[in-house]
Design brief:
Largest sheet: 5 strands, parallel
Order of helices and strands: EHEHHHEHEHEEHHEH
Structural class: alpha/beta
CATH class: Alpha Beta
Number of helices: 9
Distance between the termini: 11 Å
Bound molecules: BIS(adenosine)-5'-pentaphosphate
Strand content: 5-15%
Radius of gyration: 17 Å
Helix content: 40-55%
Strand order of the largest sheet: 2-3-1-4-7
Number of strands: 7
Length: about 220
């Protein structure tokens, strides 16, 4: 079963992905994580995407499509793939469909997490992450046991460079202009399910878990 976690920056896609992976064994493919790893490794792709990411703009389709589709098609996870942050434009969605169809597969479910813009800035600016594992915290909504320190690794938590108020506003603009239209694309294909994203994290996880169980092939 191939699932897309869809929603604005800070909607909780990464947070819910971790829980879905634990429950169902999907392979989590986050385009943002893939691009950040390329940057950390200093590859040509990593260098090419840096300015876009730091400005809160989408990376051009030709830079992101090939690298993500390669990972989708090479996935060996029996449960399927959980896409997070991809696709984000109509050309990305069309190429994903085409590649899956050739592999006799499809997008089975798009979970669209609904969060209004006014909640996003607080969520994003309060996000902290473990530098080695990427585990996601929030200073108010999901604090670590010891302030500023990862519960699992003991490392000091870090902030993403694009998690500033100014850049978040750009990311929200990009979302509304270029990504939100994909909701209609997937709605017309009968695979879109909207999920209320303003409840607490575990309530949303229960709801999403139920939707996946209901839609999973028996
Ligand atoms: P990416 O890394 O994909 O960032 P994003 O889509 O902006 O999403 P985030 O990771 O910021 O948010 P999230 O929804 O995962 O929220 P989280 O669970 O962490 O992309 C970064 C950049 O890469 C883009 O700007 C672009 O440049 C480039 N890029 C990536 N993919 C691309 C593509 N396909 N095409 C072109 N460019 C691409 O939650 C956020 C915070 O809120 C956390 O602190 C969490 O603890 C807290 N939280 C979560 N849920 C709740 C809740 N229910 N209540 C309270 N707090 C909550």
């Amino acid at each position: 079963m191939n699932i897309i976690l869809f929603g604005p920056p800070g909607a909780g896609k990464g947070t819910q992905a971790t829980r879905l992976v634990e429950q169902f064994g999907f392979e989590h493919l986050s385009s943002g994580d893939v691009l950040r790893a390329e940057r950390a490794a200093g590859t040509k792709l990593g260098q090419d995407v840096t300015a876009y990411m730091d400005a809160g703009q989408l990376v051009p389709d030709e830079l992101v499509i090939e690298v993500i589709l390669g990972r989708v098609l090479n996935s060996e996870a029996e449960a399927g793939v959980l896409l997070d942050g991809f696709p984000r434009t109509l050309p990305q969605a069309a190429q994903l469909d085409e590649a899956l169809e050739k592999a006799d597969s499809r997008v089975d479910l798009v979970l669209s997490i609904q969060v209004p813009d006014e909640l996003i800035v607080e969520r994003i600016t309060g996000r902290r992450m473990s530098p080695s594992t990427g585990k996601i915290y929030h200073v108010k909504y999901l604090p670590p046991q010891r302030e500023g320190v990862c519960d699992e690794t003991g490392e000091p938590l870090v902030q993403r460079p694009d998690d500033t108020e100014e850049v978040v506003k750009q990311r929200l603009n990009a979302y509304h202009e270029q990504t939100e239209p994909l909701e209609d694309y997937y709605r017309s294909r009968g695979v879109l399910v909207e999920v209320e994203g303003t409840q607490d994290i575990e309530q949303i996880a229960d709801r999403i878990g139920q939707i996946v169980r209901d839609r999973r092939p028996k």
